[in-house]
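Table S7 (text form). Paired inputs.
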Amino acid sequence: MKIKLLLLLVLLCSSHGFSQEKYEPTWDSLDKRETPAWFSDAKFGIFIHWGLYSVPGYTNKGTYAEWYWNALNEDPNTPKKHRRERHEAITKFHNEQYGKDFKYPEFKDDFKAELFNPEEWASVFKRSGAKYVVLTSKHHDGYCLYPSKEASISYDMPWNSVVSGPKRDLAGDLTKAVRAEGIKMGMYYSIWDWYNPYWTKRQQKILSSGSLSVDTKAKGSKKSKYSKQEVAAAEAGLDKYIHEVMYPQVKQLVNDYEPALLFSDGDWWMDYKKWQTLPLLSWAYNNAPNKDELVINDRWGKVRGEHGNYYTTEYGSGFSDGTKPWEENRGIGMSFGINRIENIDDYRTEKELIFMLMDIVSRGGNLLLNIGPNADGTIPVIMQERLLEIGNWLNVYGEGIYDTKQWIKDAQWSEGAKPVFSKSDFHAGFPIYQMTIDPKEGDAVKEFWFSQKEDNLYAFSPEWPKTSSIVINDVVPTSKTIVTLMGCDKELPYVKTNKGIKIDVSSIGIRDLKSQFVFGFKLSNIK
């Protein structure tokens, strides 16, 4: 009895010591923290871009409507074509609809969210099958959807949703509703604040150029075109913004809302040392009320794909090696914030989205699918429809999605040359059909996507087999192996082959199919 008590005491002490581990403001220390398991198990989440930019809800097609303010102030001679075209389109629209003297901050009076019903939103999210939600608590325009006094003080005007527009804590109300549905709630926070008065655009330009007040440039590098006094002033402005706005705002989010996930953004044009993000992250790891649950992304100052609990891609292809949890985030259309000129042809179909989800999950990733609500607080019906369509599919096949891991391979390719895609192919629309059901002549296709849970293998076919049998390679069945079509009670006969397993699907009739595409087979008790 004494030995048992002693062992119990040792276990309690060791577990207490683990939970009390202190993280230092270094990547070496922070990267030792394991990613909470809930994130990799979730697989599907919903991103929400909602703010003042939702009032005009406009940009030229193919660009981000939430960059409305920035586009108005863009250099019309910028060499970047997409930015120049966005500036021209938004400026023309703005001047015609609101007048050239109408300033972006005035949209705060029209962002009323008068029809916002957080319980209705949360119900749609629950029915979609999403396991987590991420809300833009503050985008690059600095306007907050929670009662940040720092936002209003620094802008010297009402600059959050509690003291202007809706006159309510939008982030808080949605958090309560989402959690009531048993869904994890996360917060997006932009560390970049485009026009915060504490740090002028010129000062931002100075520091983003790499200039420092102390000369640390390598020998032979170009001399800075800015004086040391200008650089020092820029550093002081940045320091004021970081410690009087950014730090307090993030700490308020962490302490008051206890987000399960903290999604940073706006990081890409300065490194983490200038952003001073490491002290903030170590504080969160050590002090968050829900620190055992908290997950952070990789956008903390030019460290994407290098540091953080998980890595992100945006309108991208994601990752494949499975060495780190990852997430692809994209909209149903081509904008995160609502773009009112996008039409039915600009939105991904139910089929495309389910193909994307399956492809991402097979490679060990999560899909964070964005919606852009209207300024009045309603979610466009087409976005609701897409979410519910995904949810209907997950009701049948969710067992092979949630809580699964990568198998020894993510897909089974047919014979032929594997297609090669560029980054732009994924940004424009994710070439998922070319990989599967609509290949170019001579190209191989993905015949099955795979996921695994314990000793169960899930094989997902993009379309119903054209023959009465299917062959899945590299599978070793046991005497206890059972094969079924998910959503159907029939056991499917199979035989072991030199390559794997051959499954007879001839007994499956049209009434046995619970979806129109992406059909999941469960192979239980395999080696």
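Next pair, protein 2 of 2.
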Amino acid sequence: MNRAYYGASISTFLLTEESKIIGDLTKAHGQELQHSQTIAWAEQIRLLHLVFRDIAVNGDIFFEFMIPRMGRRADVIIITGGMIFVLEFKVGANNYSFTDRMQTMGYALDLKHFHEGSHNKYLVPILICTNAPDQNITLKFNSELVADVLCCSGANLAILINQTINQLPLSSIDIDSWLAASYKPTPTIIEAAQALYSNHNVVDITRSEAGSINIAETSTRLFEIIHNARLNRQKVVCFVTGVPGAGKTLVGLNIANQHATPKDDEYSVFLSGNGPLVAVLQEALSNDLYKNESVKKVDVGEKKLSKHECRKRVESFIQNIHRFRDNYLIDQAKPPEHVAIFDEAQRAWNQQQAAKFMQQKRGFANFNMSEPEFLISVMDRHNDWAVIIALVGGGQEINVGEVGILGWFDAMNNMFKHWHVYCSPNLLTGEYIREGIEQSTLQSFHQEQSLHLAISMRSFRAEKLSSFVHFLIAGNAKAAAQVYKNIKSLFPIVVTRNLDQAKAWLKLRTIANRRCGLLASSNAIRLKAEGIFVKNIIEPEKWFLASADDIRSSNFLEDAATEFDVQGLELDWSLIAWDADFRFMNGAFQHWRFSGTKWQRRLQNEQQRYLENAYRVLLTRAREGMVIFVPFGNEADNTRLPEFYCGTYQYLLDCGLHEI
């Protein structure tokens, strides 16, 4: 991958004409180029030519350098004096906004974390607003060797760089080794979707070489299956499995994004029953599209799309599965899409739950199909060919009536035997199927290992986090402690009985573009006494996307999100508030539900599993670390007795976690 659109030694850069550099940048850009971009490049080049004529330094300079996590490019990277300078230009800006400073710091942090060659290097982010007054800022590095953002107009950039180099003499950086170092991006699903929508390759935004290969193999094979189904006029179901955070949703979005227009012969739609995920993705992508349209209007005076039109474009290929279902209950036509990607397919409703909902909420008294049966029947309306890609997670059912993967198998056997089935061998293991499956069914499946994503990309600091959470929820403190011993230096997890202390710990670590949030189980009703209201309805798109200074933002740590709000989405840092619904007493976890005015035991295995999976979801949302808050309880309140909480807190300590 071409990490920079232009790169050269500083001496070569000084001898190269502005027009030649812009020509190289334009050629490397390779996409529709806005006039404002070339103006910005010219301003940057002229300024940096002046800077390096004023100071005698050796080193290298890169324009439009790919930032690993976000699939975006930093304006300029300068490597000199043993330091890495990350420059973000705001040509014409007359103030150093909070958003711009956080963007600049975010670039530096992401380069630090996701580019191996930068791990142990000093990074200096500089925000250059060409019409703003210069600021006097003391150079200060944090524990990760990343400096606070320096702000300047550009007029004193030469002095700033020179002073920084002289203040901290360091050994020079071997540029060849730095460029050849491993590149390990790990975007959130929101950032990944934005990058894909901006025409970045899916491989460019995956975490590691192994992860890239895994994602690429799965995506390539799915495109082949889709293409062959069209050519051979076949109907196919593909089951794609993967470990938590391996990129199943990313693979699905990649397919939908590449075949997102109705005129495409292999027109695809991404469907999810995860309402918050759909809302957040639609909001993020439509906002990006609208911003890009605004740039077009400024550059060439074309009529730009309205916000509503941008929203409609995005909604055409990312849809809520329930709206898709309801539409085709009434409309008996075949859908325009030949390819339907169903996210979290294991969470589709069984026949009883689907019929109950259809009768009570939609008025269809005679509905008698499971959700998989109905969804396949809709795609089966095509006379020629159709493909269903079912993305399957293990241990993620968190709601009543979720059918699991056997519901899809039953639908195929009972009604759609003419459909071909592709799956990974992993699909047939206990992680995905709890009950047995007939051997005759297995023999009809095409099993391919490429349809399994084996490498987690969610947490760049601790790929073993899911293993730790597994042992923790299973009540195996010894095994959990052993796993945590190997990841604690990379993925800090701490516990406390003080909520204010937990928030303070988290806010110290949530800087720049990092995101934190307060999480709790949907049945953590008695956390209300601590000021945590799980019954309060949040707006997921505001909670996940609003800026850190917006009170609706997750970063404010005021509104708690539950497992239903965050499944399939991620935070960088999380605060888990632990109530007495899942309490550790007498050497084992107990499962409770708060109803009315008191706690009631959950006795059914299915209900216990839903609660365990709820906490599994909460404990696996963070990418960099988390703090767990367990209340003290109150002896005067029978719903919050101290013994409901003390055993849990001690158990977490026994799992190797440290108190703050």
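The two ends are 43 Å apart (CA to CA).
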